[in-house]
Amino acid sequence: MKAVRRFGGWAAWTAIGLSLTAQPPNRLTAQEPFPTRPPAPIRLRPVQFPPFREVALPNGMTLLLVENHEQPTLSVSLSFRAGSAYDPAGKEGVAAIVAELLTKGTPTQNAEQIAAAIEVALPRFGDSFCPICAGKPLAGVLREEGHGAKRSLVCSLCLTEWNYRRLVCPACGEDRFDRLVSYTASQFEHLRVEACETCKTYMNTVDLTKNGLAIPEVDELAGLPLSLWARENGYTKLQSNLLGI
Ligand SMILES: [Zn+2]
Ligand SMILES: [Zn+2]
Predict the structure, then answer these.
(1) Distance from residue 84's CA to the centre of ligand 1 (Å)
(2) Which ligand is nearest to the CA of 137?
(3) Among residues 48, 94, 86, 198, which one has the least CA distance to residue 102?
(4) What is the Å distance from ligand 2's center to 139 Cα?
(5) How far apart (Å, rounded) are the C-alpha atoms in residues 159 and 240?
(6) What is the tens place of the pLDDT at every residue in 85-135?
(7) What is the C-alpha to C-alpha distance for residues 216 and 76, in angstroms, rounded to an integer?
(8) pLDDT per position as a tens digit, 171-222
């Protein structure tokens, strides 16, 4: 029985070998003559938009939600009605002029004064602001390091992540252990609120040691119940997320 099966295997290999050698050599498409005319246009087909839900948030933003459960990911895009497409009729170029003026300063401060103010502010707040764009941190992240976890912060504007001390309030610099509290909920094992009793500020922290697949800026959005708890207990978020929470 064993011998027959082995023979069957050899027969199959031989058949594959024959079929490979019997193939004619491939023609390279690059050897075909270069087309001299563009292809004929095809007929327009109606665009099928996926079903979506439209929600008006309390802060005035319109949220369009399209659900597609093929991948465990979340994508957020923020659009503004701005730019030259929205220039009023007869005043074309207004958007470009306004954008140009923004880089030159405001009626009360010129560009150099704004740059100087940022320079002065940065050392005061130290490393609790984004080293790339000076944005405020959106969330904390805990990653495994040795036998414990190291903390970093994620920028609310450019999503850069930078290392930050584990037991310090990024809003006021408080580092007394008994003034820093954290709150967790059983349904979000990898999320926690980290709050400061001194300045009453909080931020959500995503614990990657509990869930290595979590994406900080996405999972932070899921921490809404934690944020509600923090607000009910008198804390203010250091920096609100895209949903204004
Ligand atoms: Zn940044
Ligand atoms: Zn604080």
Answers:
(1) 27
(2) 1
(3) 94
(4) 15
(5) 14
(6) 888 899 998 888 776 766 777 788 787 776 676 665 544 445 888 888 888
(7) 14
(8) 988 889 999 999 888 888 899 999 999 999 999 999 999 888 888 888 888 8
Q: What is the gyration radius of the CA atoms in the chain, in angstroms?
A: 29
Nearest ligand to the CA atom of 235: 2
Ligand nearest to the CA of 203: 2
- CA-to-CA distance for 110 and 107, rounded, in angstroms? 7
pLDDT in tens, 6-62: 444 444 444 444 444 455 555 555 567 788 888 888 888 888 888 888 888 888 888
CA gap 194, 196 in Å, rounded? 7
∠ CA 142-131-215, rounded to 5°? 35
Q: What residues flank ion ligand 1 with Cβ within 5 A?
A: 130, 132-133, 135, 155, 157-158, 160
How much distance in Å is there from the Cα of 162 to the middle of ligand 1?
Answer: 10
Distance 103 CA to ligand 1 centre (A): 19
Record the tokens describing residue 232, joined without a space.
């009910």
- State the distance from the centre of ligand 2 to the C-alpha of 133, rounded, in angstroms: 22
Q: How far is the CA of 201 from the centre of ligand 1 (A)?
A: 20
